[in-house]
Amino acid sequence: MKRMTAARSALYVLVSATALLIPSAAAYSQVAPHLAAQAPHSAGFNPRSTPWLRQAFRETATHGSRVRPDTTIGDFSQCPKLPKGSDPSMFSCFLVHITGGLLQIGHSSQVINRDITFSYAEGASSSGATVVIFGSLKATPMPVLGGIFLTPAAEPAVRNHPDLQLGVQPVGLAFKIDPTGNTPGFLSQKIRAVNVAFGASCSIGSKGNPVVMDPTFGTTSPPPPNQPISGHVDSAQQIGNEFVIIGTVVDNAFAAPAAKGCGPEGSLSHLVNVVGGLPSAAGKNTAVFQVTVEVVGYQFV
C-alpha cells in the first residue's frame, strides 16, 4: 500500500468514516458451514446466503484467536425495522462498528478518531427473494487536527477558537448488495465538512454523485497507480445470540468527487478542492479500517 501522506484536508475524514462501514465479501463467503454447525437458526439467517461470514470463520479457524471487542456490543436499537408481515426468523441485522483506522484520499491522510456505526438488515421475503434494508450510519463530527489550517502544527492555535476548528461527518445515503458476491455490499455516502464559514451544505459527494466504498477483509483489485492490499479477520465467534467478527477491512479502488456547497453560494468550494486534491480518481485513495461486526437474528432484536 502506498505510503500515507501527511494530513492536509479535513474533509477526508468524512470519507474515511463512512467507508469503513462494510465487511468484506471474502469474509462474507467463508463462515456459513461453521455457523450452521454451531447454531443453524440462532442467528436467524441462512448461512449459505452469507459467504463473507463463512470466509471469516474459516479464516479464524486456521490462524485466528478470540479477541475481545473494543466497542460496546449487544445494543440493537440501530437495526432497521422490517417490512410489515416479514418473518423475523428469515432476517438478520448487521451492525458494523468502525473503531479506528486511516483514510488517505486525494492529498490528505486522516486517522479515524471517532467511532462510526453502520446498520442494515438482510433476509428473504415469503417468495424467497433477497431483501436488503438500509438502516442508518451514526457518527459524530470528527475533529481534524489543525482545524482549517489542515496541519497538526496549528492545533495549539485552533484549540480554543471554534471559528478555526474543522470537523468531518459521514452521512449514509444508501446500501446495496454486491452482485458479484465478493463483498456484502456498497455503502453510498456524502461527507459533511463542519465549520462556521463552510455553512451547512458543504460536502464531498451527494445523493446523485456519492462516495461509494466497498471495504473487504480480502484482497482489493484497484486500478493503477494503487496496488492490491489485503484486510484480515482477527476473530470470529458466537457471543450469546450473536456472531461477532473483528478484523481490518480495506478499500483502495474508490473515487471521491469534488466538494460542493462550501461557503456562501459555494464560494469556498474551489479552495477546498484545490487544497484537498478533489476530485480524486479511483486508484488514488486508500481506506484501512478496524471493524467489529455484529450479526444477530431478528428474533433476538
Key phrases:
301 residues, 7-stranded antiparallel sheet
How is this structure best described in words?
The protein is an alpha+beta fold and 301 residues long. The chain has one domain (11-300). 15% of the residues lie in helices and 33% in strands. It contains six helices and 13 strands. Strands 1, 2, 3, 4, 10, 11 and 13 form a seven-stranded antiparallel sheet that branches. Helix 3 (32-38) crosses helix 4 (51-63). It is globular. The chain starts with 10 loop residues before the first helix and ends with a strand.
By DSSP, the count of extended strands is 13
- H/E element order: HHHHEEEEEHEEEEEEEHE
How many structural domains? Answer: 1
Roughly what is the average pLDDT, rounded to an integer?
Answer: 79
Task: Provide a brief overview of the structure.
The protein has 301 residues and is an alpha+beta fold.
Task: Write the topology of this structure.
Blueprint: H1 11-19, H2 25-28, H3 32-38, H4 51-63, E1 91-105, E2 108-111, E3 116-124, E4 130-139, E5 142-143, H5 155-158, E6 167-177, E7 185-194, E8 203-204, E9 211-213, E10 232-239, E11 242-251, E12 259-260, H6 269-276, E13 286-297
Antiparallel strand pairs: 1-2, 1-3, 1-13, 3-4, 5-6, 6-7, 7-8, 7-9, 8-12, 10-11, 11-13
